[in-house]
């Protein structure tokens, strides 16, 4: 089998309403969808975590892989990704991330070639109902959606998600630069939702170490399951650990430093950003050996989410709920997408490979959105148009 073509399509998939995070208003996803064609008629699907990696795929990865055997992952990687010493010396890892998106499509081809779901290729399923959290954040109103701009509104939203969808795992960003507002909201959520609901938080590194000590001291009695990136560095997290028993997670996949410093406790990652599924499996195995947790990223479309479902299905070590913005996505590029959890879980697809198919009409719609509007900004500060949001470091 040989690779005959690699197509890259940039797409936008907006949220029903944007949410506030450290850098501004976050309005939706801009991704690159990858289709790897073979001379045997099999097509594998991949997804790049950010649209600009699709340009790297077009310029560098695709030309290198034409004629390659899609089942020979080692040869494909050797054609595209420099040795680690080169990337370590240059700081250039774009090729690794871009290849990671394509490598996902190669795994999809492998599953289709053998007629097996990806989780079977990974050793079999230890679970098939995969846990995901509901998400909450401060969101301005937009076309009848959002409007959760106060603690009371966030509590009302979470109660509605529990009533309508059986949600009992919640994660959220309370990022308006006001520590007292976060403390008050957490207190109200715990009082309204009760003791059995899981509450996780994510500040996107907004707090100084001094403020984080205060905030975590105040919210610790409310049984916080996890706090993602409460401060900006692992060193600060290690210092914060001396004052708080709340577990910490991060998007920064530096296992050596986490082990050396004793914090954070868990990594939250996108598979392509780690260099592909093969490297992700090695990273998770290393986390297990060193006693560090792992769960999956949010704001991915259906192709990457399917990969998350299969890997978690086949990996006993991943037991905590992964992140999810599914409820806010207004569409997807796959048939019957987006995935949406009920009673905190999503069922792993049973088809060969990733078990998902592109929806041609949806692809056309969201590609046109990208073409007409450009990539969606994740750094929009309405108070200072054209500039990054700058929160005061309390």
From TrEMBL:
InterPro entries according to UniProt: DgoD-like (IPR034593), Enolase-like_C_sf (IPR036849), Enolase-like_N (IPR029017), Enolase_C-like (IPR029065), Mandel_Rmase/mucon_lact_enz_CS (IPR018110), Mandelate_racemase_C (IPR013342), Mandelate_racemase_N_dom (IPR013341)
Catalytic activity: D-glucarate = 5-dehydro-4-deoxy-D-glucarate + H2O
A molecular function GO annotation: glucarate dehydratase activity
Alphabetically ordered keywords of this record: Isomerase
One GO BP: amino acid catabolic process
Entry EC no(s): 4.2.1.40
Pathway linked to the protein: Carbohydrate acid metabolism; D-glucarate degradation; 2,5-dioxopentanoate from D-glucarate: step 1/2
Keyword Isomerase attributed: yes
Top-rank taxon, per record: Bacteria
Top-level EC class: lyase
Domain Mandelate racemase/muconate lactonizing enzyme C-terminal: from-to ranges: 151-247
Keyword Isomerase: yes
Protein name per Swiss-Prot or TrEMBL: glucarate dehydratase
Source species: Nitratireductor arenosus
């Amino acid at each position: 089998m040989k690779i005959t073509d690699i197509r890259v399509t940039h797409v936008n998939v907006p949220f029903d309403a944007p949410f506030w995070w450290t850098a501004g208003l976050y309005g939706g996803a801009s991704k690159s969808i990858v289709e790897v064609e073979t001379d045997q008629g099999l097509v594998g699907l991949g997804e790049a975590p950010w649209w600009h990696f699709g340009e790297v795929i077009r310029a560098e990865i695709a030309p290198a892989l034409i004629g390659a055997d899609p089942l020979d992952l080692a040869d494909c990687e050797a054609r595209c990704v420099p040795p680690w010493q080169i990337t370590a010396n240059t700081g250039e890892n774009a090729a690794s991330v871009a290849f990671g998106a394509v490598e996902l499509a190669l795994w999809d081809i492998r599953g289709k070639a053998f007629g097996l779901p990806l989780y079977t290729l990974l050793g079999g399923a230890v679970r098939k109902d995969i846990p995901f959290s509901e998400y909450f954040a401060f969101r301005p109103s937009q076309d009848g959606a959002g409007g959760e701009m106060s603690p009371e509104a966030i509590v009302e939203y979470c109660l509605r998600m529990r009533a309508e969808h059986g949600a009992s795992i919640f994660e959220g960003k309370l990022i308006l630069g006001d520590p007292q507002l976060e403390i008050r909201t957490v207190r109200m959520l715990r009082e309204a939702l009760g003791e059995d609901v899981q509450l996780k938080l994510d500040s996107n590194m907004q707090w100084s170490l001094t403020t984080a000590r205060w905030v975590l001291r105040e919210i610790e009695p409310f049984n916080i399951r996890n706090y993602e990136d409460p401060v900006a560095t692992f060193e600060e997290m290690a210092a914060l650990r001396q004052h708080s028993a709340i577990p910490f997670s991060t998007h920064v996949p530096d296992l050596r430093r986490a082990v050396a410093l004793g914090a954070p406790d868990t990594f939250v990652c996108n598979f392509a950003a780690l260099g592909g599924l093969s490297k992700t499996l090695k990273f998770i195995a290393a986390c297990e050996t060193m006693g560090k947790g792992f769960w999956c990223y949010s704001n991915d479309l259906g192709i990457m989410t399917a990969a998350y479902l299969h890997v978690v299905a086949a990996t006993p070590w991943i037991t905590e709920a992964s992140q999810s913005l599914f409820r806010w996505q207004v569409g997807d590029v796959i048939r019957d997408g987006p995935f949406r959890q009920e009673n905190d879980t999503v069922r792993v697809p049973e088809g060969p490979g990733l078990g998902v198919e592109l929806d041609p009409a949806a692809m056309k719609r969201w590609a046109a959105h990208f073409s007409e509007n450009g990539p969606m900004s994740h750094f929009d500060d309405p108070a200072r148009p054209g500039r990054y949001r700058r929160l005061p470091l309390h």
